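Look over what follows to help learners.
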Amino acid sequence: MVTLGFALLLAAGLLGAKICQHFRLPSVTGYILAGVFLGPTGINIINSASIGSNLDHFTSIALMLISFGIGEHVELKKLQEQFKTVAWIAACEAIGAFVFVFSAVFLTIYLTGIEVDGWQLRNYIALSLLLAAVGLATAPAATLLVTREVKASGPFTASLLVIVAIDNGLAIMIFGFVIAFVQQITGQSGDAFFHTVFIDGFINIGQSLLLGIFTGLLLDLVLRNLKTREEMMTGGLALLLLCSELATYLDLSSLLAGMAAGFILVNKAERDVRIFRALNNFEPPIYVIFFALAGTHLDIKAMGAAGILGAIYFLARISGKISGAALGARFAKSPKIMGRYLGMGLLPQAGVAIGLIFLISGDPALDAYSAMITPVVLAGVFLSELLGPLTVRFAIQQAGEAHGLNEEKANGENGLDNALQVSQGVEMVPWTWKKLSPQIPSNGVVAFGAKNEASLVGLARFATIFAHHFRCLPMAVRIVEPGFDQNLSTLFQRELREVTSMGYPLVSEVVPDHSVTSGLVAAIEYNSAKLVVLGYPEKGRSEDVLGVVADNVSCPVVVVRFFGQVHTERILVPVVSLEDLKEVYPVVVALDLIGEHQVQLLYLFNSEEPDTVLETKEDELCCWLAEQDQKVNVSVKVVATDARVEAILIASEECDLVVIGATRELAIKTFFFGSLAETVAKKIQKTMLIVYMQGDLKC
């Protein structure tokens, strides 16, 4: 049952994240909602009866990784620059949350006449103080995950993460003081007030920090002797988990210990942060389990049990955080953006707050308060965890540091989808190469056509380049409805201007047909075209023009996927075998024939291949290039990779045009094994030529 619960939490969390991403919501919101759906509030598959506490160890692992990750952002150089801002805001938002929650809860009890048998004024004060102390805590996990998801960086983000780290340290410390004070005013502690409040509290915090510092120094010592990322991840994780377990055994704060360990590493003179990057690869499934599991504990019934106090606690806490942060920013004379939005980034509340109410419920002297505090805090946590990631993301976005969102926006406005649609036409650089001289009589035609007229000019240029190489003429094909009575001479004006600017005449063919695909196939076969140039299918088109044409013509097909302004000077040719190169080489030769180009051949291999095999294959490829009659100045780069698409995307950053081969496979084979060219076409942000070969094509 535990394995099933683990699988359900992972699957539901991932699905929830994808749904939330579709609506531009943080992934962490999806994880939590998935947990709510699986838990007692939803379909009740994941509950204490089904899995007990068997998945709770994921919580301790996640909290240690989260606190260690926050420690990475507590860098002394940055802190020195922002010390005044961080100190004032952290102090004021903590005081604000404490004062607001205490005042609001106490006034609500007083004004609504809430009574508990046997309670006196001091008991209501004690209840208000305990809730105020719990209200200080902020959830570091949600904040850290949102900042990573939106690729946030900058002074606002750095200040936010440092304040979250300080916030939880303050919450733990002040909570200890409040517990001691409550025990004193209710007459339940015989210890000296000074000793209980100050000595024990500071000793616990100091010991937690010392444990973290020792762990950080040990990590630094061990990591110096580890070379690979896999070794670093294994060794680092082992030490961090040992630190977490030791903190639990000694009744110390694993959160403070984890932050101190990260703090030590990031502030070393060598500043080797590879361990943070290595652990990033391990974290995602742990975080999904952590947040989904947290969602299963969010019971909407608790909101009803909390009554008006739950709503008051939630509203008072966020009001105190926001107003306190604004006041602190004003005292520190920080930029206005800090005061306006930083408090909103402190809304999430979960793990630390829940841990504090467990401490209350576990103390027999405070048992009377637990029955009221638990539903109130859980109601606040429920609302904070659902709304908190949204407010964090909003705050970072308003501060202008959500670089991941900015990239999404840029891609949405001017990016890949629009490039596929080419609704505004293809942006062509004017022809600056020397004019081409056609062969008369020609050796045939290179046909081109598009269902989307906006791409016709771009297709005309590539068709003319290929026609020049194969000593043919470019032929524009236009499919019209039978009975079409418009002046046919006006149909090809744009293509004609482009082709003639390159020095070639244009052959045109008008085919009356109800179907674009059958008309294209008929024109191509009737004219015995040497090659066909088509536009990449537009997003959302129901008719697969490319698939039908490619399957029914006997000549090679080159598909052009336009992106942005069209250049051809720097060409990337990714291949996984010599056979791939043989397919695309004629196209590369054709492009190089109009003027010298920079061509990089990206030879992709599996990462497990030994160096001897890589060298042999590279020599074989270079020998083949040297044997060709029509030579192109090609630089060969051999890459051993676990992810072909990622390697191509990285290499494409330095090129203008990508040329890649694609075989015409059976549909069933493509369904199971996919197509590298098609996958790259959906992800890459470069103009791209996909070469579908059929039969031999001589250079």
User: Anything to note?
Assistant: The longest strand covers residues 598-606. Residues 410-424, 666-673, 695-699 have pLDDT under 50 and may be disordered.
